[in-house]
Amino acid sequence: MIGRSTSIMSYDNPALQFDEQRLAKRNLLQEQGVTLYPPSFHRSHTIAGIRTEFDSVTHDPSPQQVATAGRIYIVRDHGKTFFCDLGDESGRIQLYIRKDSLPDGKFAIFKSGVERGDIIGVKGRAFRTKVGEITLWVDDFELLTKALCSLPEKFHGLTNLEKRYRQRYLDLIVNEESRETFRTRSRILSQLRNNLTARDFLEFETPTLQPIYGGANARPFTTYHNYLEQKLYMRIAPELYLKRLVVGGFEKVFELAKNFRNEDIDTSHNPEFSMVEIYQAYADYKDMMRLTEEIISGIIREVTGGYEVTYEGNTIDFTPPWNSMPMEEAVKTIGGIDIFTYPLEALKEKGKTLGVEGVEGVRSHREALPLFFETLVEEKLIQPTFILDFPIENSPLAKVHREKEGFVERFELFIAGMELANGFSELNDPIDQLERFEAQEEKRRLGDEEAQMHDYDFVNALGYGMPPTGGVGIGIDRLVMLSTSNTSIKEVILFPSMRRESTTEEEEEVAPGEDNQ
RNA sequence: GGGCUUGUAGCUUAGUCGGUAGAGCGACAGACUCUUAAUCUGUAGGUCAGGGGUUCGAGUCCCUUCAGGCCCGCCA
User: Fold this and answer.
1) Measured between alpha carbons, how far is A36 from A76 in angstroms, rounded to an integer?
2) Lowest mean pLDDT, pick from A80-94, A150-164, A424-438, A491-505
3) In chain B, which nucleotides are within 7 Å of a protein Cβ?
4) Which of A258, A276, A472, A508 is most exposed, with minimal Cβ within 10 Å?
5) Is residue A512 helix, strand or coil?
6) Nearest nucleotide, C1' to the C-alpha of A496?
C-alpha cells in the first residue's frame, strides 16, 4: 500500500524505540558536519585478525597501522582518554583513545557524539597495556553508523525471552551464546549439503505452494492464487515431488525444505520448520537408517568435536552404530508389556490402566501397538534409537514389509524422547498406492482432517515406474537443538512464530482460512 | 483446549502484612591520560502490561483482557 505521507516525522510513535538523547546527539553531529552513515570503510584486519597477528606486541605500539571496524560495546571515559571495547563478528578488542593522539577536533566529536552501540571504523596500532591487555592505540576514527536505539545493559544483557525472540537482532548483538547457536545451525546446514553432495546426491527445490498437499499427516496453511483462480496449500512435506524426481531418473536427491504445518506451537514445534528429505533409488529403509546414522553422527562430531552431547542432564552418545529394534519389541522390553499375549479386550483394559490414549477404539493388536509405544516408550528413548516396522494403517506412502504382514518397512529415529527422523522403503507399487490413497480418502470422509489427499498425478508417476527407493526426512531444528543443548525450538529458529503484539493499531482481522472443506 | 506461572525506568531487578515505588547499569552534568562490569560527585527518568472491582488507601487482594514461559492435551 502507498504510505500515507506524514509531513512531520514523529519520533515519539510508541512503536519506535528511538532514544531522545541519541536523536539529540545525531543532530549535534550533523551540525558539526559529521557524516552519520558513510557508504563504506576499508578494513585491513578483522578484530580476531589483529589479535592473531599482533599477539606478541609489547607495551610499545607496533609501527604497523591497521584499520578495523565494529560496534562499541562498552565505553570507559577517563576525561582525556577513553577505553572502549569494540566488537565485530570475529571478536572484541579494546581501544585506547587519547585526546593528544587524534587529529584536531576529533576527540571532541567522539566525546560528545559517539557512544555505546555506535559502529565506528578506527585506524590504530596494537600494543599491550600495563596489565597485558592487547589494545589498539587509536590514531583516527570514523563514525560509520549512528545508533538511535540504546543497547541493553552491558553486564546482564538481554534475558527477556519474548524480547529476545521478537527482536532477534538485538539478542544477536548482545548475546554471544545466541550467535554461537546460529553459527552452529549454519555449520550444520553446510555440513549436511557437503556430506550429501559428496555422496553424489543432487539438491533440488520443489514447490512450496502446492495444489494438493501430501507426504505427511498434518493440517496445512491455505492460500489462494489470484491469476490461477485456485486454492493452494503451503507444503507440509516435499515428499511426493521428490519421488517424482526419482521416477524421472534422478537416483539420489535431497531437498532442504521449509515445511509448514498449521498446528500448535510448543517447545518442539514451530509452524514453519526445516527438514532435509533424502531419496535414494535401489536402497531400502535399512540403507536409509545407515545413511541417517552416518549423517547425524558426522554432524555431531563436526560441530561438537566428539560424539557426546549433554542434553537435559543426560549424556547422549552418538557413537555409531545406534540401537535399533522393532516397535513391538520396544513396547515389550522398554514399555514392559507384551501386548500380543493379551486378548484384545484385556489389552484395552490394560491400556486404560496404563493411561494409553485412544486405546478403547482399536480393532486389532496392530492398531494398539503405536498407541502403547507413544505412551510407554517414546519419552524413554534418550540414546539414539531406531524404531522399526510400523503398522500399515498410518503409513500410506511406505512399502509393505517383506516379512511381517500388516506392517510396513519404516523406521523412526528417537533421541532425547524426540522424533528426529522418519524413513521408509518407499511404496512404488502404483496399485497399492492407489488403494492406500483411497483408504486415506475414506478417513477424510469420516472427518480425519489430517488424512492425506488423493494425488492421482503421483499415482500416475508411479505408474511409469519408480525403482525400489529408500527415503528419509531429518528434522533440522531438532538436530540443532541437540547439537547446541537447547530445549526450546525457539532458541534455534532465528525468527520463531509469535503472536503479533497488540500495541500498534489493530489491523484488519484476517479470516481464519478456508481449510475446512 | 486445560493447569501452573511471569509482566515494575531503555536493560537487569527489589518491593515484607495493603500505607509516599527503590537500586544497579545505561542516559545527562561534572572530575580523572593504562582502564576493562573503570572509579568518584550530582541530576533526570515510572500509566507498576491494559481495563474493571474491593478498600479510607492497591505494584501488592479479586475479576477480566493482552503478551510471554513451563507442563498436559493435540500434533501418529
Assistant:
1) 22
2) A491-505
3) 1, 10-13, 24-28, 31-39, 66-76
4) A508
5) coil
6) B68
The 8-class DSSP code of residue A117 comes to: T
Model confidence at A10, in pLDDT bands (50, 70, 90)? Answer: low
| Residue A66 parent element (H or E) | strand A66-77
Of the candidates A261, A302, A328, the one whose C-alpha atom is nearest the C-alpha of residue A473 is: A261
Q: SS3 for A470?
A: strand
Beta carbons of A41 and A143 less than 8 angstroms apart: no
Taking the mean position of all CA atoms in its chain, how far away is CA A40? 32
Q: Is the distance from CB of A170 to CB of A163 less than 8 angstroms?
A: yes
User: Can you tell me the distance from the alpha carbon of A350 to that of A352, in angstroms, rounded to the nearest whole number?
Assistant: 5
| C-alpha grid cell, residue A343 | 486378548
Contact present, A401 and A407 (Cβ < 8 Å): yes
Cell of A312: 537435559
Asked if A453 and A212 touch (Cβ cutoff 8 Å), the reply is: yes
**Neighbour tally for A453: CB within 10 Å:** 17
Mean pLDDT (whole number) for A265-288 = 96
Confidence category of residue A502, pLDDT binned at 50, 70, 90: low
**Which of residues A328 and A7 earns the better pLDDT score?**
A328
Amino acid at A236: I
Report CA(A143)–C1'(B26) in Å, whole number: 21
C-alpha cell at A169: 537482532
Among candidate residues A295, A303, A321, A320, the one with its CA nearest the CA of residue A485: A303
Nucleotide nearest to A20 (CA to C1'): B27
Largest pairwise CA distance in chain A: 93
- Among all protein residues, pick the one whose CA is nearest to the C1' atom of B74: A264
| Mean pLDDT of the A226-249 span | 96
Residue A445 amino acid letter: R
The β-bridge relationship of strands A308-311 and A222-225 is unpaired
Span A417-444, average pLDDT:
94
- A283: nearest Cα among A475, A458, A393, A423: A423
Q: How far is the CA of A503 from the C1' of B9 (A)?
A: 19
Cell 582525556 -> residue: A80
Alpha-carbon distances, residue A98 vs A60, A68, A139, A141, A323 (angstroms): 15, 17, 8, 11, 64
DSSP string, A477-511: HHHHHHHHT-S-GGGTSSS---PPPSSSPPPPPPP
The Å distance, CA of A170 to C1' of B59, is 29
Close Cβ partners of A314 (under 8 Å, ≥ 6 residues apart):
A382, A416
CA–CA distance, A498 with A512 (Å, rounded to integer):
17
* pLDDT of amino acid A107: 95
Q: Which nucleotide is nearest to A80 (CA to C1')?
A: B33
- pLDDT tens by residue, A16-42: 889 888 999 999 999 999 999 999 999
| Residues contacting A72, CB < 8 A, separation 6+ | A84, A85, A86, A114, A115, A116, A117, A118, A119, A120
Place of cell 522424533: A419
Q: What is the ipTM of this complex?
A: 0.92
